[in-house]
Amino acid sequence: MPAIKYKVNLSDDERQILQAVVQKGKSAARSQTRARILLKAAGGSRDKDIIDALNVSPSMVAKTRQRCVKEGPEAALKDHPRPGKAPDGHNHWTLRLLADKVVELNYADSCSYETIRQLLKNTLKPWQKQEWCIPEVSSDFVAAMEDVFDLYEEPYDPVRPVVCFDGSPKCL
After folding, report:
1. Structure confidence by residue, pLDDT tens digits, 40-74
2. Which of 4, 21, 71, 98 could hold 35 in an S-S bridge, CB 3.0 to 4.6 Å?
3. Domain residue spans of the chain
4. Which residues contact 74 (CB under 8 A, 6 or more apart)?
5. Can you give 69-89 as a three-state secondary structure string?
6. Is the model's pTM score more than 0.85?
């Protein structure tokens, strides 16, 4: 078994705080999950067992362990500040704050909150944006692409039907 890079050791007080987070159930779900991770890690559970028991990703276990060791268990329960965080004194970005930021960044000489509202409502729609990124067009990529095209060109075989998820009309 590989050595654990960040071994979680909790004092009795820290353990009680984490157990309270789990038992009260009033904290954010992520905080409760992180508290469970730390309690299991401090109890000697292996990462794989924690992942299976709590249905979390390996990176969540690793990052929670690391943050606990480096910053303490209470810091490990909290989310890191996210990019684009609202300005001090505000919980979130408002339309007025966004309009002010447009002017501050010299994107425009002036901007109203209504302009921002219309832009977000009618133009950007980031929730509807779909992208597909082609990696570097290397010889390996071209070979794989040709394999897919060759598969599309094969005649229909009812024993081995071709199943396609890209909407090509050639696939059955």
Report:
1. 999 999 999 999 999 999 989 999 999 999 999 99
2. 21
3. 12-77, 95-128, 132-172
4. 17
5. HHHCHHHHHCCCCCCCCCCCC
6. no
